[in-house]
Design goal:
Layout lengths: L9 E5 L17 H11 L3 E6 L2 H9 L5 E5 L5 H15 L4 E4 L14 H29 L2 E8 L10 H21 L4 E8 L5 H7 L4 H5 L10 H12 L10 E4 L13
Parallel strand pairs: 1-2, 1-4, 2-3, 4-5, 5-6, 6-7
Helix pairs in contact: 1-8, 3-4, 4-5
C-alpha cells in the first residue's frame, strides 16, 4: 500500500529488523517491526530502523519505499537505547513518530520463574521502551506534537498460563503507554498501543514453529492467524492524523480472540 498520509514525517522503529524464518515464498523475512517500517515508509515517512544486529536493520532500510537509516541498538542497554534515539533524531532533525516494537518472549510460569528470565524480559520489554520514549520526548514537546505507538500483546491483558515474565512486562508496557498519554496530552503528544494476538510473524515462527500455524489459527474466531502487515496497518493508523483524537488506548488486533468465551468453536 502507498499513500501520502505520513508524508514529511520522521519515524523511528525500535526493533525494525527481522531474523526469520521467512514465510513460504518470501525472500525477505517479515516480522512485525519490519512490516511496520515498510508500511510507514510506503505512506511517506522517513524511517530510521533500529535493531540489535545492524545488518538486519540495513536489510529493512534497503526495502523501504523512501529514505531511511539503519542504526544499531541493544534494547537491554539503556545507553544504547538513548544513543539510537539521538542518532535517529540527528539524521532528519526531529522525530515525529516513535514505534517501540522490540520484545522477547519467556517460557516460565510462576513456580519456576527465574530472576534472570524476569530481569531480561523487564529490560527489553519495558525498560527499553520507556528509555526510548524518555529520550524522544523532549524533541516532541519542543515541537508541540508527536506520536508514540507501542507494540504490545494480548498477554498483557489476558493470561496464557505460559510465561509470567512476558505477561507481567507486557502489562507494564501498557502502563508506560498510558502514563505518556495522560501526562503529555495537553502538549500535543499522543501515545497508544496495538495489542497483538496470534500473528504469523518471524518471532512466532521461530519460537513456536511454522508447522504450528494451523493449531494457532484454530483458537481465532476468524479462523486464521493475523499477518505482520495487518499489525503494521494498525500502527500506521495510530501514528497518523487519522487518529488525532485517540490517545491512551490499546487497539486490540487479535481476530476476535479476546471477545470470545471460552474458546471459539471450530
Amino acid at each position: 500500500m502507498t499513500s501520502s498520509r505520513l508524508s514529511g514525517r520522521v519515524a523511528y522503529v525500535l526493533g525494525g529488523g527481522s531474523d526469520g524464518p521467512a514465510r513460504a515464498g518470501e525472500t525477505l523475512a517479515i516480522g512485525n517491526g519490519r512490516a511496520i517500517a515498510l508500511r510507514l515508509s510506503a505512506e511517506g515517512a522517513t524511517v530510521i530502523v533500529g535493531d540489535k544486529v545492524l545488518e538486519r536493520a540495513a536489510a529493512t532500510v534497503e526495502h523501504l519505499s523512501g529514505p531511511g537509516l539503519a542504526v544499531q541498538v541493544d534494547a537491554a542497554d539503556p545507553a544504547s537505547c538513548r544513543h539510537a534515539v539521538a542518532a535517529a533524531a540527528a539524521h532528519a532533525g526531529r522525530l515525529d513518530i516513535v514505534v517501540c516494537n522490540v520484545g522477547i518472549s519467556g517460557r516460565e510460569p510462576l513456580k519456576v520463574q527465574t530472576l534472570e528470565d524476569w530481569g531480561l524480559a523487564d529490560d527489553v520489554n519495558v525498560r527499553s521502551h520507556w528509555i526510548t520514549a524518555q529520550a524522544a520526548l523532549p524533541g516532541m514537546l519542543d515541537a508541540g506534537s508527536g506520536a508514540f505507538v507501542f507494540v504490545g500483546s494480548t498477554a498483557g491483558i489476558l493470561s496464557s498460563r505460559r510465561s509470567l515474565s512476558y505477561e507481567a512486562t507486557k502489562a507494564a508496557q501498557l502502563a508506560v503507554m498510558r502514563h505518556i498519554a495522560v501526562r503529555y496530552a495537553e502538549r500535543g503528544v499522543r501515545s497508544n498501543a496495538v495489542v497483538l494476538g496470534n500473528i504469523d510473524s518471524a518471532l512466532v515462527r521461530r519460537e513456536f514453529g511454522a508447522d504450528g500455524s494451523a493449531a494457532r489459527a484454530r483458537v481465532v474466531p476468524m479462523g486464521r492467524e493475523g499477518t505482520p502487515e495487518e499489525a503494521a496497518s494498525a500502527v500506521a493508523f495510530l501514528a497518523s492524523d487519522d487518529a488525532g483524537y485517540i490517545t491512551g488506548q490499546s487497539l486490540i488486533v487479535d481476530g476476535g480472540v479476546s471477545a470470545a468465551w471460552p474458546i471459539p468453536p471450530r
